What we know:
Elements: E1 3-8, E2 15-17, E3 22-26, E4 33-34, E5 45-50, E6 53-58, E7 65-67, E8 70-72, E9 74-76, E10 82-85, E11 88-93, H1 97-105, H2 112-115, H3 127-130, H4 143-164, H5 168-182, E12 187-193, E13 200-207, H6 221-230, E14 234-236, E15 256-265, E16 270-279, H7 296-362, H8 365-390, E17 401-403, H9 405-422, E18 426-427, E19 438-440, H10 442-460, E20 467-468
Amino acid sequence: MASLFVIQGPDRGRRYELAEVSVTIGRESSNGIQLHDTEASRRHVELRKNEGTYELVDLESSNGTFVNNARIEQRLLQNGDRVEIGRTRMIFTASDEAETEKHQLDVDIVNPEVTTGASRIISSLSQSEGSQLFQTSDPTESAWLARARSNLQVMYRTALAVSHTLDIDQLLMRIMELIFEWVEADRGCIMLMDEETEQLDPTVRLNRHETQSDEKLTISQTILDYVVEHDEGVLTTDAREDNRFDAAGSIIKMGVREAICVPMQGRYGVVGVIYIDTYTTPGKMFTQRAGTRFSEEHLKLMVAIGHQAALAIEDTSYYSAMVQAERLAAMGQTTAMLSHDIKNILQGIQGGSYLIEEGLKQKQWEAIENGWRIVEKNQEKISNLAMDMLSFSKERQPELQPADVNSVVAEVEEMLSGLAAELEVRLTVLPAKDLPELLFDQEGIQRACLNVIGNAIDACQGSDAGAVQ
């Protein structure tokens, strides 16, 4: 079934299955999909299904609807399209069960006997050997080839890092370490874009020298704004001569001689920036001349590294959203299960209370004793339910014991008789004759019977001749 999966916004982690022919999306509760997003209109868009395809139609919303960063009025959705409504970002997933089955049928795995002599393994390479693909010890290799090999090596190691790490902080620190191994930067920082404020927040910092650890890293807002707004990396080797930046008020006073700042451009936009620089104390900035350490080659590779890191961050965020969706689903199942158990216990207590009340009215001590016995049983069930909740992390296994089914059903009748009498529903139990003891979970069967019979009594409420047998 096709669905919309929220990867960003107030409803992050929710999955909406598209079962209806037409569904509206917006802030109002009357919509098929309600978004808790203040920037979404009350009725923002409509999703229409037509012969297996889905068309997204903007309903003259205030802030517009975007698909893959392009504003749309009407658009036929494709699998994987990104839909943006206000601050909410969703991924559209089309139903591809038939296509998956088709591809599976097109693949045939044959037994070794069939291919004997027809094919053989002539070479193999372990993963550890593959990681040394771009390393060489040839002293005669040209400087240009050595640099190219080094660049490929850092990209390869970056790709390995982003594919092996799900923790964003660990991933970003590893990327900074790889950059420092490859280029002679003094200081570096990675900042991620906050989804709510749309401001850059420092996430990881690295210094080459320990003496710099106590110093505050001050980064030019001018450079950050330029990188984010223009979506391009910048290299400055002499801030005094770079007319893109306000040298006097920007980085000269910070002691920055060279700097590279690149956007972390993902599939859906800029998720952050990577910044590195070389540092000189401001007093020596104009008196000390030093050779450049950064080049256009470094800038190009930094842009590529930023893109790799951004894709990994988006994938990690998507994975986190999926985990959150699974947790929400599990919470929903837990709530439904507990509500049934609590309802059954309350029905039993109500039944016992009814017998006690009637016994007090008619001064029938036997009825009072029977009612109190029912209440006591359900008090014990409350205690057992509380213990089950404490050990909910463990899956409950059925406790199979020999028991009489008629006795279990009789207890259920006793617990629900008060509810049936209160709702004027006739409850009749016909015990099975000559039924031997069976091996089953008494508590599980009792819960099931309470659910089924209790729902049946509720369904008969208000009818003239309601009866459950």
